[in-house]
Amino acid sequence: MAKIKICYLNVYESHLFPLTTLLNEHNESLEIYQTKIGSVGSWCWESAICLAEYCYDHMFNQFKNKRIVEIGSGTGVVGVQLCALGGNVTLTDREEYLELINYNIKKNQQVLTGQAQAKTLFWGDELNENDDCFQNLDFVIVANCVYHSIELDELIKTICNLCPENSQTCLLCCYELRSDGIRRLVNEFHQKLIEKKFSIQYIENKDFREKYQNDYNAIVKCQR
Length: 224
Ligand SMILES: C[S@@+](CC[C@H](N)C(=O)[O-])C[C@H]1O[C@@H](n2cnc3c(N)ncnc32)[C@H](O)[C@@H]1O
Known about the structure:
Helix content is about 25%, strand content about 20%. By secondary structure, it is α/β, with parallel strands linked by helices. About 40% of the residues are buried.
């Protein structure tokens, strides 16, 4: 499939505005910068913040020294949070987003307790077998990446490559189910995951912070 190149993102300081609700494992603040220009990955999606805060509230000790890959990272909000809880995280997206992800890693370097790096990973592309960071993962993070039917099979392929059958890799996904179209697409995504032998567990939204307890934020934990 042809790779669609979205508008190139320059991280100009004057276009940036920070999100500062997140904390590291020593309760020091993180600053995730978003941009006013660019496309869907340029700002932090609500359910991504909901997932980041859910991980802080309910999975605080589960990321320390763990091997984590985030796909479709955008600003890197979830990946940076997990790195601030001690995880070793590779944050990935289209090449256009690496500058923004690297900016957020650099801005938070002092409060990150794990290792963070940014890499290009285009869904559907083969993983570089020599690249150790994509092997033997504890967690794979997919925040708000199910919004485009034409990319679903490529997304599933990348997830399956990162989470081999019978591995212990935990796949954490979040969505904003704001329309019937997105609900249908997420159902289709889950059906495809089930065909690939994933089990899917919905997190009850009473476990989300109160402001995210609505009818559209959703988090699932999957295992293959
Ligand atoms: C809706 S944004 C979500 C960003 C971030 N995860 C969040 O929730 O705030 C979806 C992200 O997926 C990335 N993406 C879309 N299609 C992609 C592809 N084919 N390969 C790699 N990344 C892709 C976009 O660049 C964007 O950053």
